[in-house]
Amino acid sequence: MQISKAMNRWYSGRTFRRFNTGVGHGNLDSQETIINIPNASVYRFGDGKYAQPLFQDLTWTVKEGESWAVIGSGGGGEKTVLFNTLLGRYRIAPHPPPPGGLFPFLSCAGLDPYSEVSTVSFGHRQPAGGAFYDYSARYGAVHEEDRLTLRQHMFPQTIPPLRMPYEDPNDTRELVTISDEELTVFDDLVAQMGLGQFLDLPLIALSNGQTRRARILKAVLKRPQLLLLDEPLTGLDIKARPLLLRTLHNLHAKKVPRIILGLRAHDALPDWIDHVAYVRGPTVITGDRDSVLRKIEHGSGGWHGQSKKPEVSKTSSKTQIGEVLIDLKNIKVQYGDRKVLDQLSWQIRQGERWHLVGENGSGKTTLLSLITGDHPQSYTQTRYHTSDSNSSNSSNTRETSSHLQLFSQPRSRLPTTLLRSAIAIMSPELFDAFPRRSSMTVWDVIGTGFDGDFVPKGKRSVGSGLGMKVTSDPDLMRRGGYEGAMEGQDGWGKEENWRIGRVWEVLHALGPEAWKQADTGMQLDSSSFSQSSPSDLTLDFSKMSFPSLPLPQQRVVLLMRALVGQAPLIFLDEVWSGMDETMVRVAREYLRGNFPSTSKSSGGGVGPNQAVVVITHWEEEVPWNRDEDSGVFKRFRLGGGKGWVEE
Ligand SMILES: Nc1ncnc2c1ncn2[C@@H]1O[C@H](COP(=O)(O)OP(=O)(O)OP(=O)(O)O)[C@@H](O)[C@H]1O
């Protein structure tokens, strides 16, 4: 393998800084101290003297050889704020004094924290600007600019430079060879992370779990002294998690790099973690693992190691299985020789609650994109053939050997606007792609859910009814299968009022009022809820600028957007990743129908005519289970291109 001179210079730069270690002003203690915050408060830059600190009385010392996890439990993304504090994005007052400063081990070696401390955060979205970008791009023909393979992404300098026609295309003078040592490290890590077979695939084609592992690999290859990994396990399948944890443990033990793990309060704590910083609101409790876990158990009831058992569901008592909404028969998706889905059949009916499972790369997102109509191959799945002469019907009878029927229609007959309002979705791709315009309020974002829009529409920001709903009502089917009214039509006033009521309901049931009550252990009081006079907390939240919210709250708002319109079919793909424990608990209970709604039209949660598909690698995150929801809860497993209902 070859790298360019640019990379060589980069290595030289590092070597130079490392040779500088002689200028250190530290002693042995400094070398042994990784992080040092004696006692300080943390503020946003620009905050005034009397501003409320983000963290108060923060005392945190990390010593060489210790293994730390930062556990976040608050809804404000405090864990990420603590990581960002280490990255210099907030003001520490008083700042840890020189000569050691915040990172004594770096200062005493003359190393620059700016380049030696890095982070990979999975709570964060990829930068996408203010506009919506096409997140379905990966399913179609790969654009030239997206052809970058995983290998090239790891070593961008190996991409041959563009040459003028008169230049020799085989001229390799610009390229130099990667050292054997580098290659060994790379090959080892690729094998440990199970990425070998994807090295020559376009980066954009990798599944979520594969992309996450690739991002960690890239960060490790840069060889920082300290790597902050925020929620590295979310989105990884059960097999991949222990493998990744073992790899991270090995790297940490060898200090290439030292690693601090960011975990959610309900994630399992790896055995090798011996110290914990537990973040809740402005308070950070730090210390050895046992003492911190003891304090939390006695205090605010935070650490459980896993989610609480959910309350008894009201789902099964009121839900009956109804009409077929989605009908897939002998579905195939293939890229070149690579078969992703092969002869797959699946039916989704009204009232069903599905858990879609399968290892990373087994095709869950691909299947979902076929059903939402985003995948170009969703148009090509219907193949008719004339039935044989044994058919009881006339010779014109046509049967399908393979088909994809969405609400009793082939994909090509359903306008995309209609599908967007008929299938509500929350997924990592949507979270990354959803536009962040500062003028968009929380209300606006939730209101886009009715018609599946990405920008607010309609006078009251609850859509204009353009998408409407697909119905399985036989009378309405004759009118094209759509129900609902459009802005300007008879019936719009009633529809608009219903929509406004629904926005208030999801805000109340899943928003700050509900988090507050769940945190204090109180039942959410439905009698205090009124659409005409929502609580100040709910009202203020509805007016906030969406992009200014902490990321966990943005996730909840996009979940509200998926639930607000009561679409016939809802996909919840990895919705809990990046949310804190309280938000997950509140949302799960709401989905199980444990929200005592005041509105007759709603019933809270999801209705008996709706179907829900949850995609997650974490069993305990699924709101329904076999025992309590038998009859409506089912599991569909993907593996080796096939799919089957698991008994
Ligand atoms: N354009 C493409 N070319 C080649 N392979 C592709 C392409 N797009 C997707 N794939 C492959 O299809 C497989 C299925 O990907 P998909 O995202 O559906 O998996 P997934 O089950 O959702 O995984 P995860 O649990 O990691 O989210 C992956 O192995 C992926 O690399």
UniProtKB/TrEMBL annotation:
Residues 387-399 have a biased composition (Low complexity). Keywords: ATP-binding, Hydrolase, Nucleotide-binding, Transport. One of its GO terms (molecular function) is ATP hydrolysis activity. Residues 37-306, 326-642 form the ABC transporter domain. Residues 378-408 are annotated as: Disordered. Pfam families: ABC_tran (PF00005). Gene3D superfamilies: P-loop containing nucleotide triphosphate hydrolases. It comes from the Eukaryota. The keyword Hydrolase applies. InterPro entries: AAA+_ATPase, ABC_transporter-like_ATP-bd, P-loop_NTPase. Belongs to the ABC transporter superfamily. PANTHER family: OSMOPROTECTANT IMPORT ATP-BINDING PROTEIN OSMV. This is P-loop containing nucleoside triphosphate hydrolase protein. It comes from Lentinula aff. detonsa.
